């Protein structure tokens, strides 16, 4: 994006105040001032309750919300590259951290900072499990919201593309498992080591029998 486009993007994220309802809005949606300490403790309670699948609750809620919310900031003239940049900037603008979509075509999304990791480290001992559950849902939501396609539609599009290009690399591994075996995809986000803010994103597949 050029300078003008970047300024336009900033305007899309403008915070507005409704004096009649006393609500703060970004993209015509209510937002709240959040604290990473509060979020970490709330997440710990939800995910730590054994009687429920807390991670799935958080992930599914984030996915559903941002699959729709991302459309509040996308304009018809935006390119696909613009849309991924919008997804990254929205994540940062809402205070969640930093996401890099530049290697998305290779199935890689990287993060150098996380609101959720920061809050977790401030209030709890080191966790052996990923604590960016919300981010996983965010990624799944914006990817679906931006592509606008179901798995089946994308699957057949990739089949056609591979046939047209006569390519030996179908790039359909995960899609085939999802389409043919009802597999569920998810993303695991982990800090590389305690002395680094860099993180790895691993695609996970759950097969049902």
Ends: how far apart? 46 Å
Q: How is the main sheet built?
A: 3 strands, antiparallel
Cα-atom radius of gyration: 19 Å
Q: What is the domain total for the residues?
A: 1
- Unreliably modeled segments: none
What's the multimeric state? single chain
Give me the strand/helix succession.
Answer: HEEEHHHEEHHHHEE
Strand order of the biggest β-sheet = 1-2-3
Shape: globular
**Individual helix count:** 8
- Beta-strand segment tally: 7
Class inferred from helices and paired strands: alpha+beta
**How much helical structure, as a percent, in the residues?**
40-55%
Fraction of residues in β-strands: 15-25%
| Mean pLDDT across all amino acids | 76
Offer a quick outline of the entry:
By secondary structure, this protein is α+β, with helices and mostly antiparallel strands. The chain has one domain (3-206).
């Amino acid at each position: 994006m050029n300078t003008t486009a970047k300024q336009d993007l900033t305007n899309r994220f403008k915070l507005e105040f409704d004096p009649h309802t006393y609500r703060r809005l970004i993209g015509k949606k209510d937002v709240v001032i959040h604290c990473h300490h509060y979020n970490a403790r709330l997440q710990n309670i939800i995910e730590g309750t054994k009687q429920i699948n807390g991670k799935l609750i958080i992930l599914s809620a984030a996915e559903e919300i941002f699959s729709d919310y991302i459309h509040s900031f996308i304009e018809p003239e935006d390119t696909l590259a613009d849309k991924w940049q919008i997804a990254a900037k929205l994540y940062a603008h809402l205070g969640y951290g930093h996401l890099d979509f530049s290697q998305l075509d290779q199935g890689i999304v990287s993060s150098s900072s996380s609101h959720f990791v920061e809050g977790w480290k401030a209030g709890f001992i080191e966790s052996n499990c990923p604590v960016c559950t919300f981010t996983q849902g965010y990624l799944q939501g914006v990817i679906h919201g931006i592509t606008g396609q179901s798995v089946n539609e994308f699957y057949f599009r990739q089949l056609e593309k591979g046939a047209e290009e006569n390519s030996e690399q179908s790039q359909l591994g995960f899609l085939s498992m999802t389409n043919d075996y009802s597999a569920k995809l998810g993303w695991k986000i982990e800090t590389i080591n305690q002395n680094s803010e860099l993180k790895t994103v691993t695609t996970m597949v759950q097969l049902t029998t």
